[in-house]
Amino acid sequence: MCHVIVTCRSVLWTLLSIVVAFTELIAFMSADWLIGKAKLLSSEDMDNRTGGSQEPYHPTLGIYGRCTRISHMWLSRQDTLCGPYAENFNEIASEFWQATAIFLALGIMILCAMAFVSVFTICVQSIMKKSIFNVCGLLQGIAGLFLILGLILYPAGWGCQKAISYCGPYASAYKLGDCSLGWAFYTAIGGTMLTFICAVFSAQAEIATSSDKVQEEIEEGKNLICLL
């Protein structure tokens, strides 16, 4: 018989699992991993009444994407264009970034799967006498290790030609040159830390859903159990 068990700790773990998965996914898809050195882009009005102007901007570079600014030939408007610079996996700028993409993708797939499974733990707490919370926590820990490997390998690719074109000739492995780190890199680090917190917190969710008070209410025949 399915018992719906809702506790404060199990709900918090489920929400954290979902937040962690989306945090890492958004960071991975973003092009704001590196912020390039300032560039000047010339802009002219149609009637040339204001003449030419020089406006500095910072292009950004991700693992497989980039953002740059383009100027319309007949308009003074300037648009930021973002998209993948690599049409396939082999075109990713560095072998280290290819490895980063693999490890991050593996970690994110596990996290997304665990986030999906965590939603159903309110109804199903174990499979084949194995606690789903403990299994999910273990897999989240493994996902965290994949994320760490990806983040460690990522700076090793700063010496690739693509990064040098954004960061200047002094850029090399683990040296940013004229670039700075974007919000996506810090978000990925924060998400990785939350992944391990989430893995540890899964044990608390297990304790909460298998407590004596929960067992007492199950024995009383209750199918919906809500505990703080």
Automatic annotation (TrEMBL):
<dbReference type="GO" id="GO:0007338">
    <property type="term" value="P:single fertilization"/>
</dbReference>
<keyword id="KW-0278">Fertilization</keyword>
<dbReference type="InterPro" id="IPR019372">
    <property type="entry name" value="LHFPL"/>
</dbReference>
<dbReference type="GO" id="GO:0016020">
    <property type="term" value="C:membrane"/>
</dbReference>
<comment type="similarity">
    <text>Belongs to the LHFP family.</text>
</comment>
<protein>
    <submittedName>
        <fullName>LHFPL tetraspan subfamily member 2 protein</fullName>
    </submittedName>
</protein>
<feature type="transmembrane region" description="Helical">
    <location>
        <begin position="96"/>
        <end position="120"/>
    </location>
</feature>
<feature type="transmembrane region" description="Helical">
    <location>
        <begin position="183"/>
        <end position="203"/>
    </location>
</feature>
<dbReference type="Pfam" id="PF10242">
    <property type="entry name" value="L_HMGIC_fpl"/>
</dbReference>
<feature type="transmembrane region" description="Helical">
    <location>
        <begin position="132"/>
        <end position="154"/>
    </location>
</feature>
<feature type="transmembrane region" description="Helical">
    <location>
        <begin position="12"/>
        <end position="35"/>
    </location>
</feature>
<keyword id="KW-0812">Transmembrane</keyword>
<keyword id="KW-0472">Membrane</keyword>
<keyword id="KW-1133">Transmembrane helix</keyword>
